[in-house]
Amino acid sequence: MQVSRKPLTVRDLPTELFRNILDHLGCESEDTLAACTLVCRDWLDVSRQHLFNEIHVLRGADESFEDFADFLESHPVHAAYIHTLQLEARLFSIPYNVALMPTISIDLFMRIARALPGLQTVRLRQVHVQSLGSSIPVVAPEQRQPLEHMEYEKCYSEVEVAFTLLSLFRINHLDLSPFFPEDGCSDIRPGDHKIQARSLCVTPDTPQPMAVFKALHQVVPPSMIISFRWPIYTLSDPQLPVVKFLQHVGQNLVDVNLGPSACSLSLHGPANC
Predict the structure, then answer these.
(1) How far apart, in whole angstroms, are the C-alpha atoms of residue 252 and residue 227?
(2) CB neighbour list of residue 110: distance below 8 Å, 6 or more residues apart
(3) Strand (E) positions, the chain?
(4) N or C: which terminus of the chain has fewer CB atoms within 10 Å of its end residue's CB?
(5) What is the DSSP letter of 264?
(6) d(C-alpha 18, C-alpha 14), whole Å
(7) Alpha-carbon gap, residue 202 to 229, rounded angstroms
(8) CB–CB of 154/126 below 8 Å?
(9) What local confidence, expressed as pLDDT, does residue 63 receive?
(10) pTM of this structure
(11) 122 forms bridges with which residues in the sheet?
(12) Rg (the chain; Cα; Å)
């Protein structure tokens, strides 16, 4: 006796197949992804994972990120899909104009980060980072929110504020390109806050690079960094204590690139600069 089988439909296909189809549809197109959410319930969930995987939030100098934090907290399903977050100025300016940068406090930024359980990459670009004046509690290394990659690019802040923010994460690779004011950088007191990063790329845009090294020396624990980059043409300045800093933190270094400079470094012998 021949048993009749119900014809297979698109709903009988495994969800993994839908995911592979969307991976090859050019998921950078938001219109394509939005259309896919309307096909069926199975496609809705898969499409939203692509649609919300990377979020760029643009703000002007007179705008806040508060509404974005409210959205994340009230939409936990959507927030769980976000792996890459980029907060940046609506008007990206060169040379840098602080008056055009939106402001975000450390408290508000951490509120956003805590609402994103799947967060892997953070990019802060030309954002004015501020502290509310209240002391930030020291977070134990094992309790810090892990990140695969953080870019702190041309953000304006006091040195202590920048390093306090970075110390709240456990970062695999940190690109640090801060924009510090011309004064107020000479006295750094980061307290017990320590940066935790395996790879560090430093390109400070500041008239006081010594202040950056002073802060780094205090907040980067010895034996922490595996890879170090300083890709800046002004490294030939003999006042920059690159070698001293690497001797402090570089016991586990396997990769060093000091950029196009007159300095050279040997990982297995004395350093020359």
Answers:
(1) 9
(2) 168
(3) 54-59, 84-89, 103-105, 121-125, 128-130, 145-156, 169-179, 196-202, 227-229, 255-257
(4) N
(5) B
(6) 7
(7) 6
(8) yes
(9) 94
(10) 0.78
(11) 85, 150
(12) 23
Task: Using the CB atoms, write b or e for 228-243: b if 16+ within 10 Å.
Answer: bbbebeebeeeebbbb
Mean pLDDT of the chain: 79
* pLDDT tens figures, 42-60: 666 676 777 778 899 999 9
Angstrom distance (rounded) from CA 58 to CA 111: 18
Best mean pLDDT range from 8-12, 47-51, 128-132: 128-132
- 248 burial (CB, 10 Å; 0-12 / 13-18 / 19+) is middle
What gap in Å lies between CA 176 and CA 151, rounded to an integer?
6
**Burial annotation 10-35 (CB, 10 A radius, 16+ → b, else e):** eeeeeeeebbeebeeeebeeeeebee
- Tell which residue, 32, 23, 78, has the closest CA to residue 54: 78
pLDDT bin (cut points 50, 70, 90) of residue 263 is very low
Given a cut of 50, whether residue 270 has pLDDT beyond it is no
Q: Quick count: other Cβ atoms within 10 Å of Cβ 95? A: 7
Closest listed residue to residue 208, CA positions, set 188, 229, 228 = 188
Sign of the four-CA dihedral 63, 64, 68, 74: negative
Residue owning tokens 């001797």 = 247
The Cα–Cα gap between 199 and 218 comes to: 17
* 232 pLDDT more than 70: no
